[in-house]
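Predict structure. Chain length: 294.
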Amino acid sequence: MKSYFKKVGTSLYNQSKIKSIVLGSASLALSGIVDYISGYEVNVSFLYLLPISIFGWNINLRATIFMSILCSAANVLANKMSGLTYSSTPVLLWNIISMAIFFIIFAYAITITKDIYHEEKSLARKDALTGIANRNAFIEMGSLELERCKRYEHPITIAYIDCDNFKAINDTLGHQTGDMLLQAVAVTLKNNIRASDIVSRIGGDEFAVIMPETEAMPSEIAFKKIQNALLHSMLKNKWDVTFSIGMATFMSPPKSLDELISTADTLMYDAKKNGKNMIRHDTFETEDRILTLF
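Prediction complete.
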């Protein structure tokens, strides 16, 4: 979703890919050796499904098809080396081709299963209505980012956003309009944050944004811009909705994501109690709190 996680994901994917190539190649060699030792009278061709599965799940279809062809050739070669003779070259070729077709069909099945699995996993991390991260994904990504900021002693800012008067929109204009409003909020947030930031619909009409490596002043400037963009979106659609925003900047990241979220949540409710349509911002240095209201 975001550049940081994309870089981490790409790095992990490349490492996994190299390991899969090594592991798949080793399992191919081992399967061939076992096939040769067992002799052609004992069919152990199922062993070749292991390297195909490794390639199919961790690399891509093209590489898996190539591995399937190698496995079929290795099977025929092992049988021939163990004493099996073929009456003619066409029979040899037919054995290679038929085995390759079986392995390729299996390769397709593995890659299709993998794609379905990853698609379902991706959908499970997205909010069905707005398309941005859901609460579970936010907790997962936020925890990773918090640990990174703690490790390198970088500041981190979180904002908790509540849509003022949202219930009135649902009651007067209907839930379909309410859904459109939430989608507009999600799009506005997504279009006005950095690639490294994390945005999520926490639930109902509440959203959250984590801004890694962001101190108080830059986060204030950024969220004043975001607040204006949100209000402009509401005005454009003639929706009588404003936004109460709680922001917490930690110069030294807290121990847990729960603390991060609950602090911003408390500030957001403080904004609602004091008239709504405002931003309440605390900065945490050590144990001292500096309150900035704008």
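Summary: The chain has two domains: 3-124, 135-293.
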